Amino acid sequence: MIDIMLLLALPASGKSEIRRYLDHLDAGALADLSLGGQVHVDDYPYVHLMRRISGEMASLGAVPMFFTDSRSQFTEQRDWLTLTLLLDEDIRDVTGPPPPPGPAAPWLFDRMDSASEGAGIGRRFDALDSDLNGRLADAVEPDAAELRDSLPRVDSLDGRTLVVEFARGGPEGAVPPLESPFGFANSLAAMSSSVLVRSAIVHVAVSPAESRRRNLDRARPGPEGDASILHHGVPEAVMRGDYGTEDLSWMIMQSPLRGTVSIAHPEGPLLVPAARLDNEDDLTSHLRGEVSEWDAADTAELHHRLVAATTALNEEV
Fold first, then answer.
1. Contact in structure between 173 and 15 (CB atoms under 8 Å)
2. What is the per-residue pLDDT for 232?
3. What span, in angstroms and rounded, lies between the C-alpha atoms of 50 and 108?
4. Is 243 within 8 Å of 47 (Cβ atoms)?
């Protein structure tokens, strides 16, 4: 059984839809995929909170911390690594104690500060004026509490597979290897070796042009869409400036061992099993709808490709 499956791709490539599909499979079908019961983790909720925080700071007359406006890229590109370190902590804490009770915003600010410090940026919330910090905390408290309460906690991962979703890329026209902090190579190198040695990667392969098309297709306007894993839209500037190219295909091709990616980890090079699931023909968008309306042929073909990918992973694991 695969312990940790890293489901990696450009935005709107079908990662979240695949997670939804896996959630509807019984134990026998999951066993066909070398998977156990599902525990899911992803980093999009942090992106949503970073945009909420930035918007509230602007409304309070302060310089926004993460994004200058709702359509912009990160002001500090090293925040891609901030996201990675937050996600890595969530993975490691799945079997740990629950987050502390009480106000959630100070807890979130401290976690974000610790992660951005690890990314080399420093502790930005600690540097805020105390009055601004307090007003900001009050404004985003409901969102912070929702995120904190949604973090998965289980007594043990025995018999379970932790499914981890995130997207990374680089500027349009860039050629791998991508400069830090862009791309999967740099984010994977920032993750804990204790996570990586238990992981296997499924690359949901979609071209940047198709990723942009589906991103527009899935987006629902307003707060309901912005907060949704399945229906949020990534701003066009981000799609081209941060997701205009991807480096995971290159990593797979460059690896010294077939069926793996080589990660230049600070603790030493690591080889992580990796398999490609081609989704350029879009077998997943229909999975956003009601289960009763899922296309039977596309669902069957998706399952076939998932079996092929996870079988390839198990050969390497």
1. no
2. 73
3. 11
4. no
Residues 316 and 171 in one domain: yes
Both 153 and 163 in a single domain?
Answer: no
- Alpha helix positions (H), 24-78: 27-32, 44-59
- The share of the chain scoring above pLDDT 70, in percent, equals 96
pLDDT in tens, 176-213: 999 999 999 999 999 999 999 999 999 999 999 999 99
CATH assignment at residue 224: 3.40.50
Measured CA to CA in angstroms, residue 161 lies from 24, 91, 119, 233, 313 at distances of 15, 11, 28, 28, 14
For residue 165, which of 62, 297, 12 has the smallest C-alpha distance?
Answer: 12
172 and 147 inside one domain: no
In this predicted model, what pLDDT tens digit does every residue of 44-73 receive, in sequence order? 999 999 999 999 999 999 999 999 999 999
**Surface-to-core class of residue 161, CB atoms within 10 Å of its CB (0-12 exposed, 13-18 middle, 19+ buried):** buried
Task: Give the CA angle between residues 294, 295, 299 to the nearest 5°.
Answer: 90
Say yes or no: 207 and 261 in one domain: yes
Mean pLDDT, the chain, rounded, equals 95
Report the residue count for the chain: 317
Together in a domain, 26 and 52? no
d(CA 46, CA 300): 33
* Per-residue confidence band for 302, with pLDDT thresholds at 50, 70 and 90: very high
Q: Which two tokens stand for residue 135?
A: 């007003």
3-state secondary structure of 123: coil
DSSP letter string over 256-306?
Answer: SSTTEEEE--TTS-EEEEEEEEE-TT-SSGGGGS-GGGS-HHHHHHHHHHH
Whether 229 shows a pLDDT value over 70: the answer reads: no
pTM here is 0.95
Nearest in space to 43 (alpha carbons), one of 144, 162, 165, 218 = 165
Enter the tokens of residue 48: 């949503």
The parent domain of residue 178 ranges over 1-36+159-317
